[in-house]
Amino acid sequence: MARQRAVVLLSGGLDSTTTLAIAAAEGFAAHALGFRYGQRHRVELRAARRVAQRAGVPYRELSVPLDRLGGSALTDDDIPVPLGREDEEIGEGVPLTYVPARNTVFLALALAWAEVLGSRDIFIGVNAVDYSGYPDCRPDFVQAFERTANLGTRSGAEGRPVRIHAPLLRHSKAQIIRRGLELGVDYSLTSSCYAPSPKGLACSRCDACRLRIRGFAEAGVEDPVRYSPGG
Q: Is CATH 3.40.50.620 the right assignment for the domain spanning 5-219?
């Protein structure tokens, strides 16, 4: 019996890679979807391809030029990526690394591909516990998008509701890492850093690196990625 297809948003980072493994563990035939959106940390795209190849799943990459709109430290060279923020600062307010409406755009395109594939399931690795204050990583956003998806698609209109899966929504980074390791995830393939070196080494100072480093420490395992010396 053929497995049900699912579209999995894959950035090549820790959370999305774990989410891909969860989708596969739940029996779905995963189809990974990545985005070239003008991000300064394009090293994550190479990571996404590595992850998809290792997992043996189809990978499609779309270009969405969000950098032409600007407004984020991840897409605008004139806005520096915040570095060295203390733990209590991370998660307070919306940071400069928020990309306007990014997850809304990504989920909309994932929804379109899901309809083409005949899939009713979309996985996204958003997290509302150890995260950087992004409004589009919260439970109410995920729930609202699912409602919208079922109002505006053929699938929803024909009584085949779309489901937005966010399996990491209420997990800490340590819990995410432990779950991934249980599923055999190779985190050396991933890239989380917002400000990598020209050689692709993680900076250890941006919010994403700090959350990742703390998560591995709390999980009691070594982070296999390489960091810039003296970062």
A: yes
